[in-house]
Amino acid sequence: MRNQKREGGFTLVELIITMTIFVIVIAATAQVFTALISQFKQQSKIAETNTEGIVGLEILRRDLSQAGIGLPWTMNSCGYSEAAHDYTNPWVDTDLNDGPPDNPARAGLAPPGGSDTAGASNAPAPFRSLIGVGISASSGTSIIPNSSADVLVIKSAPIAMNDAAQKSTYIVNLGGLNNTMKRWNTILPQPWNTVNADDLAASDNIIILNPSDGTSSNILQNDGARCWTTLGIPTFSWFSNSAHSGLEPQSYSNGRFTVYGISQVGSYPRMPFNRADFYVKRPTTGMPSRCAPNTGILYKGTINHSDGAHSEMPLLDCVADLKVDFFLDTDGDGSINWSPTVAPYSPTNNLSAMTAAQVRNQVHEVRVYIVAHEGQKDTNYDFSLNNTRTSLNAIEINPATPDPTVTANSRTFATVNLKNLVGNPEYKYYRWKLYTLIVRPNSMR
Fold first, then answer.
1. How far apart are CA 123 and CA 277, in angstroms?
2. Is position 195 within any domain?
3. What does the mean pLDDT of the chain come to?
4. Cα 69–Cα 210–Cα 330 angle in degrees, nearest 5
5. Contact at 8 Å (CB) between 328 and 300?
6. Is the pLDDT at 416 greater than 90, yes or no?
7. Angle at the Cα of 259 (from 257 to 260), degrees rounded to 5?
8. Dist CA 118 CA 132 (whole Å)
9. Residue 33: its pLDDT value, please?
10. Within this chain, do residues 169 and 148 fall inside the same structural domain, yes or no?
11. Could you give the number of structural domains in the chain?
């Protein structure tokens, strides 16, 4: 009998078991891969947010430190107009302007083709603020429900982004010699009257301040026609009998005047300084989709000299709150007047009841708190810590007695309730972060 070789294979049961194991392995691998992709996206967004925060908040920190540079303390009968009414940001006319009521047609003491009969304005204050305005919505004058963001206004010469605003110099008179404007780049063999990159250009609009004249300081110079001027010919040598005679030192005075660039040609200055507003707004278009509901973008809005409106620069995305706190020395003893239960100023006046001189002399420290989230929504994350946390509040320590172990030396500075702002449970799924800027502006006095 011939032997027959058995031809065998996998049984149906074996195939089902093998396929089941294979499917389980593939599913597990896919889950791991999906988790890795999701984590990679989350970490990429977090890194992007951190980089954005470093750059944007560094701009704000620098502007805080430069508050007051080049501001006139005495207006010398010079009038000016600040921001025009902006209906998407209705707060611009509320307690923030040191000048007279807005009038877009006015641009200095004697703009080309017209004259100013409004009289003198108040000296500009380095800081103004408005508390609890909220996040401006894309619909215009309305705000995001439950939002309570502040508005911060900083005034100084170099706070604008144009080239002229980044430059300053001085005029000196040495007895019988011609008044001469200091040039910063005098490397030979270039022509003596060449304008260099470090120097103000001939077409730049400038203001000139007399640092001291009797009891007054930083007096805005006025030649009877206007309170600021275009620099003119690039010789940087001015005569006391020139067209700028009211703006410069007199012959034999041995005087020295400071000069600040304000704007470039084509934008005749509406005010003898620059101004930037910091606020949170949710734009009509361009809001990042990764941001939580009812959050906005932190903007730096520089006031245009041409029309008084804002030129906006976004600083930080996905912002839920902006809070400003001023530490004041109200009695002039050189130390901050601080209480664990009462803020150093009344939250209802926002510095608006203070004169420019009081702001300069009393504001010793500015603290800015910004609540924003890193990355994007992550349903595997729980910010609330099992429903025990709804906000990120700052703990302020008394700088005079900085011992955090003593309760009386600290106070809580509250920020927005994220649960009310964003909604529940949405707010839980974002990595909220509190950014803190502490700056002592030393350029105001």
1. 18
2. yes
3. 80
4. 50
5. no
6. yes
7. 150
8. 32
9. 67
10. no
11. 2
